[in-house]
Amino acid sequence: MSDRIVTTYSMWSLFRNCRKACDWRYVKELVPIKRDHNLSFGSLIHECLEKWHRNRDLSVVLDHIDRSFLGRSSDEGQKADWHLATAMMRSYAERYPAEDFDVVFLEKTFEGKIINPATGAMSRSFVLAGKVDGIVCIDGKFYLLEHKTASQMDGDYLERLWTDFQITLYAHYVEQVFGIKITGIIYNILVKARLKPGKGETEAEFEVRRADLLAKSKTGKTTATRKMPESDADFQDRLIAKYAEPGMFHRETLYISRDQFETLQADLWELTQQFLDCRRRGVFYSNTSYCFFHHRPCAYFALCRSGGSENVIENFYEHKTPHEELRDDDTGEESPAF
Ligand code: SF4
């Protein structure tokens, strides 16, 4: 299958959402120089979970986090992420001291055929490749393990997991490529705590508050002292206490609906045909209703707005080969455009 173009679900999903974005990423091979913060954090947690589930040694995980944020003493952003990742993984190890599954594979890549549903023939142009976070076994049955870092988890979030067609398609490919029958998917959800370190108050802010308290005091005195910034140790303790609350970690098992396999394969085939047509005609149209789909601009917004200006490309984008997520040294999802 080596002469066929390797594609991923991310690519087809992007093509379906906005063909222009797919063109920027997968044909012109451009990515923004500045990586989306949420995706970077999610990638780090994926790496940590892989390390944890491989040998269950928390010191290895914490060391990885420390080395990922070497500039944290002078960079507030790095420090905040270091705190969150550290508290999250320390608490995760505490929450799941033992598992009811056996790990079969971690970060397993696959590559499989894309089939024409009308003829059963294999695509001569494309193959589909992907990487699953894990394959685990419970009582002789196999499940995909899928890690998710979520900003919040509620009924809607869990309901939306049903629309996670990527993992359903992956289950199909894992069955085809490795001959392992997949019973379901275990979603391993870790919620990102929204706590921020206490900033304390400046001398001037304290004087204003003190004056206010004195004005209200019947004795004309106050014991108020200046609020100092929260120490690292205190903030870490507060985060750990947050992670002890229910709902910060959750496991949800969904069983595979095999009826979906056929539909997903047929949809995938259709996308391949449309892509070939776009490439042949050199036309990848823009879907502007997707520019702010996730309440933030698409990663290619600056590029589209400038009409593909070379100057914008030079200053804000770089060339990168697609499908980084398939490399062994990268466990995060590839940056989608949104
Ligand atoms: S900015 Fe809008 S039109 Fe351009 S690639 Fe992104 S979603 Fe598509």
Structure keywords:
338 residues, six-stranded mixed β-sheet, two-stranded antiparallel sheet, 8 strands, 44% helix, binds iron/sulfur cluster
Could you describe the 3D structure shown?
- With 338 residues, the chain is an alpha/beta fold.
- It has a domain at 35-98.
- It is 44% helix and 20% strand.
- It has helices spanning 9-17, 19-27, 37-55, 58-68, 76-95, 155-160, 165-178, 203-216, 232-243, 259-281, 301-305, 310-316; strands spanning 5-7, 30-32, 102-115, 122-138, 141-150, 182-191, 249-255, 317-319.
- Strands 1, 3, 4, 5, 6 and 7 form a six-stranded mixed sheet that branches. A two-stranded antiparallel sheet has the order 2-8.
- It starts with a strand and ends in a 19-residue tail after the last strand.
- Mean pLDDT is 91; it is low at 329-338.
- The structure holds iron/sulfur cluster.
- Iron/sulfur cluster (SF4) binds at residues 18, 20-21, 24, 286-288, 290-291, 298, 300-301, 304, 337.
Short note summarizing the structure:
The chain is an alpha/beta fold. It is built from twelve helices and eight strands. The protein has a domain of 64 residues.
Secondary structure tally, helices: 12
Strand content: 15-25%
Order of helices and strands: EHHEHHHEEEHHEHHEHHHE
Associated small molecules:
iron/sulfur cluster
Question: What is the averaged pLDDT score?
Answer: 91
Biggest pleated-sheet summary: 6 strands, mixed
Distance between the termini: 31 Å
The 3D shape can be described as: globular
Can you give the helix content as a percent range?
Answer: 40-55%
Oligomer: single chain
Coarse structural class:
alpha/beta
